[in-house]
Amino acid sequence: MNGNRNFYELFPITSYLLLLILAFFGLEYIAQTKLDGEGGGLWGFNPRVYLELGSLYTPFVKDGEYWRLVSCTFLHAGLIHLFMNCMVLADVGRVCEPLLSPWKYLVVYVASGVGGSVAHVFFVSSLSLGASGAICGLVGMLFAYATRHDKRQMRDALLRWIIFIAILSVVIPYIDWAGHLGGFLVGCVFGWFSQEYTTSVTAKKWRYPGYVVAAVT
């Protein structure tokens, strides 16, 4: 039966997140056009566009604009940044969403994104945006889950990804290492306490925090 179902039916939350990210990118394009008279988008937009639409900027957050902790995770600096994060989210989401149940998956994703944003505010003062902190949280969740339940093949495969991401975060100056680390650690906490099999009763309990997270988003 699953072969006849489309991606949205199988992975509703992942689809919702991808559509939201694409919608934000559309807003970035429109804002760029209004600001400079041209859309751009391949390598990025005017930094003012990011600030106006909710990118993470430590001085603004410390002045009380806490909504940026969430909104920044849906903004991206150009088509390449957008494509890479969407591709990884679609891939990792197909593993995480069935494992956690849709509502818990949404909570883990947004909590990881906020965790990455908070880490950025503590350690970095520059502008930041993108879903990578939340995605690193999903990777951390799977890694901790695989370690706890002794799933060695999954753990070893994820470990290679983690090393690769860590190297990129250090070598490339514009990558938000603090956001990656914060998201990863939050995801690890969820993964360590995730059961090997999610029962319908467990999944149901995550509906209400899921509703709150969806409303905040």
Tags for this model:
217 residues, mainly alpha, 12 helices, globular
Write the layout of secondary structure elements.
Blueprint: H1 7-10, H2 12-36, H3 47-53, H4 58-62, H5 68-71, H6 79-100, H7 102-123, H8 132-148, H9 152-171, H10 177-192, H11 200-205, H12 207-216
Task: Describe this structure as you would to a colleague.
It is a single chain. The chain has twelve helices and no strands. The protein is an all-alpha fold and 217 residues long. The protein is globular. The protein starts with 6 loop residues before the first helix and ends with a helix. The model has no long low-confidence stretch (mean pLDDT 89).
- Backbone shape: globular
Percent helix: over 70%
Report the strand count.
0
- Average pLDDT: 89
Q: End-to-end distance, in Å?
A: 32 Å
- Quick one: biggest sheet? none
Low-pLDDT segments, ≥5 res: none
Oligomer: single chain
**Tally of contiguous helical segments:** 12
Describe this structure in a few short sentences.
This protein is 73% helix and 0% strand. With 217 residues, the protein is an all-alpha fold.
